[in-house]
Amino acid sequence: MTGIDPKWIFWLGIVVTGETAIAQGTVSLTDMIPVAWIPVTLAWSKALSFIGTAVMTGFAGVSSTAKGPLIK
Q1: What is the pLDDT of residues 12-24, one digit of tens each?
Q2: Is-contact 12 52, C-beta < 8 A?
Q3: Domain spans of the chain, in order of start
C-alpha cells in the first residue's frame, strides 16, 4: 500500500481547525449569518469537526509505511 498523500491531511486539518473554532465559539457568528442559523451552524460545526478529526487520524494511520520509533 502506498499510503495517503500528506497534502490531504493538511487541507483537511485546515478545514477542521475552522470548524473547531466555530464550534468552540472562538469565531463569533453574530452579524456574520442570520441569528436563526447560528444554532444549526454550531451543531454542524461540532459534528463535522469530530468526523474530520476521526478521518485525519485514520489517514495518519493508513499513510504510515513503517513502524514508529517506540516499536522495537
Answers
A1: 999 999 999 999 9
A2: yes
A3: 19-60
